[in-house]
Amino acid sequence: MHSIGARLKAWRDSRSLKQAEAADMIGLSGSTYQNYERDVRAPSTEGWEAFVRAGINANWLLTGEGPMLLADLIPTKSE
Q1: Residue 58 belongs to what H/E stretch?
Q2: Measuring CA to CA, which residue among 33, 14, 7, 10 is closest to residue 22?
Q3: Angle made by CA atoms 28, 41, 7, in degrees to the nearest 5
Q4: pTM for this one?
Q5: DSSP annotation string for 39-55
Q6: How far apart are the first and last CA of the chain?
Q7: How are the residues of the chain apportioned to helix, strand and coil, as percentages rounded to the nearest 5?
Q8: Phi, psi (5° rounding) for residue 67?
Q9: Residue 45 CB neighbours (<10 A)
């Protein structure tokens, strides 16, 4: 996955969501989310904030490095 759009699609697929459902879950309009996923438009500051609030790791979304989800960054008690 070499683009933000491809990683957004991977996140959406991992949740078995349609684009409209993903947009609603994140709090973006359907067309805005679709433009981000299709790499037609780069996410705005509000878009990045919405992704992080939805639990998506911004580093993963930008670079493809690290876990997809912020929750996976939190160490467990056994660590």
Answers
A1: helix 58-63
A2: 33
A3: 75
A4: 0.88
A5: TSS---HHHHHHHHHTT
A6: 30
A7: 60, 5, 40
A8: -75, 155
A9: 7
Token reading at 19? 């684009």
| 37 has pLDDT over 60 | yes
**27, 50 in Cβ contact below 8 A?**
yes
pLDDT exceeds cutoff 60 at 57:
yes
The packing angle between helices 4-14 and 19-26, to 10°, is 100
Q: Which helix (H) or strand (E) holds 19?
A: helix 19-26
Distance between CA 70 and CA 53 in Å, rounded?
A: 9
What is d(CA 11, CA 39) in angstroms, rounded to the nearest whole number? 15
Interval 34-46 mean pLDDT: 96
d(CA 54, CA 49): 9
